[in-house]
Amino acid sequence: MSTDGAARLGLHALRLHDERMRRYAHRMVGSPSDMDAVLTVAYAAAHREQVDRATAPSPLIRLYRAVHRSCRAHLSKPIEGDGAPAPEANAGVLGALALVPIDDRGLVLLVDGEELAVPDAAQAVEIDETGAPARLAHARAVITETLEHDRGQA
């Protein structure tokens, strides 16, 4: 770390929050191999990023932000092969989450799955805090409606 007020995330922060980041990345991308790829990119980016200590969010939020950016980039790539989603992506909660835009999916997972406060989650997925509650409510409604529809067809 430099002495000019800039800070980088160290290995301690990465180790401390690794389990949470793995859980979040896996829920976002759906497979262990994709999760590992996403985390490799995210951890390198988080470590390289220098921020002003006085204005930077907490290390936890900075890590979630890096992981979310990496998930967003990964999920935005064109699908190779026949373009068919993996079978597990069509079932239950994962299938319902896949219908929600990437940033809103992250918001739901951070608030409902990781128990972050809405403003912190909004900051992590880089959306406007004032619009986050409405986006969260809409995403939850889509997920609930999809799950109820799936139950009705079972």
Structure, explained:
This protein is mainly α. It is 67% helix and 3% strand. The chain is built from seven helices and two strands; from the N terminus they run βααβααααα. It has helices at 11-29, 32-48, 59-76, 92-98, 102-113, 118-125, 132-153; strands spanning 6-7, 51-52. A two-stranded antiparallel ribbon has the order 1-2. α1 (11-29) packs parallel to α3 (59-76), α4 (92-98) packs across α7 (132-153) and α5 packs antiparallel against α6 (118-125). The radius of gyration is 17 Å and the shape is globular. The model is unreliable at 1-6 and 82-90 (pLDDT under 50).
Keywords for this entry:
7 helices; 154 residues
Strand and helix map with partners:
Blueprint: E1 6-7, H1 11-29, H2 32-48, E2 51-52, H3 59-76, H4 92-98, H5 102-113, H6 118-125, H7 132-153
Antiparallel strand pairs: 1-2
Helix pairs in contact: 1-2, 1-3, 2-3, 3-6, 4-7, 5-6, 5-7
Q: Specify the overall morphology.
A: globular
Percent strand: under 5%
Structural class: mainly alpha
Helix content, binned percent: 55-70%
Query: How far apart lie the N and C ends?
Result: 56 Å
Number of helices: 7
Whole-number mean pLDDT: 83
Radius of gyration: 17 Å
Major beta-sheet overview:
2 strands, antiparallel
How many beta-strand segments? 2
